[in-house]
Structure formats: C-alpha cells, structure tokens
C-alpha cells in the first residue's frame, strides 16, 4: 500500500509540474486562493508562541514526499486529546471529546498523508481516555489509519491506582488498554504485536520492566529517547525535540537539537536487527503558554520552516530504501501550549515579488526552500479564479496565457504542512 501511495504521489507531482512548459489545460477554477483548510478552530486566532490561526491555508501535499525515495515509513501524529472543560494555557476553540471535531481532525490528518495517531494517554477515568473513547467511532471512518497508546508519566503522577507504585500502575493501565484497545482492528501492530510506548516514565520512578513483560509478553515496548533502547525487554525507542532555555542564543539551541537528533539515529542504526527506531519531526517549541513552562520557558526556533525540513533531512541522511525507518512521529499534532502544534500548519516567511514585463511575469520569492511549487491564477468575474499554470519553486519568469491583459495572482504552495502564500494582485494592461 505504501509503495502504491508513493507511486501515486510521484505521478500526481509529475502532473502538477507538467504545466511548467506552458498554460494548464482545463482552466481549473477556484473561489478562493487561500481557503482555511485545517481542523483548527476558526475561533483560534493564533498565539504568541508561534502558532498560526485556525483559518490558515496550508500545503496538503503528502507528508511522505519529504522522506527519502522508496520510503515505507509510517507517519504517525503525536495526538493529545486533552482539550476539554478545564481551562488551559491556550483556548484552542474546540473540545477533544466532540465527535465532530474528531472527524475533522482525522480527515485533516488523512488529507496530509498521515497514517495514524499515537495517543498521549493518562489512564482510565481521565478526560483524555473519555475523549479518545468518543473519537474511536470517527477514526473507524478512516479504515486506513491506525492508533496506538503512549502511556504518559502523568498517568502515575496524577492518576495512579489507589496504593499502587509505578509498576503496579502500568500493569493496571495495561489491563485496561488490552481490554479496550488491543481488540480494535485499527490498533497499531508490528510483526503482529501490539505497540505501546511510554512518555517520561524514568522521570517518575523505576519501573520493573521484567515483571511487566512477564505479565504482557506480547507487547512491543517503545521507550523515551536513546536510553530507551537499553531498558530490559525494550523493543525500541523514539526521538524527541530538545529545546533550550529561552535565554540561550537561538543558533546554539538549533545546534543542540541537531546534535541530539544525529546522536539518536546513530545509536538507533547500531541496534540489533528487529529493533524499532521511531524517528521524529517537529517545527519548533515554545512553552511560554504552558503552566509547567512559564517559570523557565524553553524554546526551539522554527526558523521559517527550516527546523521542520531539517528534521527530515537528518532522517534522509541516514535511512534509505535498503535501510528503512519503520515509523516517524509528528511532534506534535496539537500541543498548543508548548508551541509545537502542527494542526494549524507552519508559518511561512515567503514573500512574492512579481512584475509584468511584456507578455510575461518576472518572479522572485524569498525562502524558496520552503516552497513546493508556484501556481498562476487569473482573476475571473464573480470572485472566481482560473488556474493558468503550475511551475517549479525556482521559476523566475512565467509566460502569460495568451499574452492577454488581466489581473493575476501567484500562489506559493508550501512544502507539506507549510503555509501557502499568495501575492498581491498583478495587473497586466
């Protein structure tokens, strides 16, 4: 299925760029050049920690196109269904237990090529579990998508079973997870085994993984960070963003994050055969809106989308068609408080300068590395626009269709998840 999807994606990409040599046939018409197209709430106006508004228009090009050629990697979104009745640091404008919002979320994910979700889970009886139970019927409407549970350390800190230590709490949670979720045909499995991950358990105590494995030997455990490879009965580990204190120089923070990613993948590549490495991609981090981060906020600069693209580059330098990376985690789908939410997209710094010269347009764009391709539109009557052509991002001259006068716009379609940008009106007389 993945190979077929990639073939289709490549074919569509070839069709999209075939217009570089001339006017697009068919004159596709649209009523808006940058319509809102994410599952973010229209009531979310963006935030000071770097997130776009819920009305943003972003690229829906398949996220797999950012991975190395021939990739069979499954792309999974780190999902936090914790938005509910209790106030948090950001008002996102929706509730995670609303089935309508769940449907919009999964539809948006699927439209970007996402294969499934990793649910950051806080235990039975917690609002997160209530919200996820309400979401499952909506996920079933997308049968190609999977889900798995990541047991957060908060399940012990805030929701431990009465009188239980860390190990007993994990066992208690596994009894519930195996009953409620492993039976789903959409639960993520690897070589037939259910995959369960954990978040930050080593920060709240020392779990007895031998005892846990003895009780649930079928589970494939994925642990936090590179040291997770070395835990007893570990099946693998995942990488995570490494923000720095906000006061630290941005360049140093970006360098620190890069060095950690490189170290993780180098360690992962030296693990025994069958070990599961879960890569990670992210666009930035800023937890000034989070109650737990306000006193000593951490930061990782988005750098106009370059951080996002660089996290893919680190993967692509180390994996290929002969050495596949099984999974990549999008960090995160909707942690608005930590400024890592990808739901509303990644802000673009691209600017477009286009000037008519004779029967063509001269085009200059900034930050072309974050642009997938350009589209030329001709304004029609009634507020509609006709697609006149598609062109590579490095195009510097565009011939006008039929050399005719009119009002035109150039749209810079971002690389996956990155904001689309539309030029001002270009009037040709």
Automatic annotation (TrEMBL):
Keyword field: Signal
Cleaved signal peptide residues: 1-22
Domain of life, per lineage: Bacteria
Protein name, entry field: Glycosyl hydrolase family 71
Organism of provenance: Burkholderia cepacia
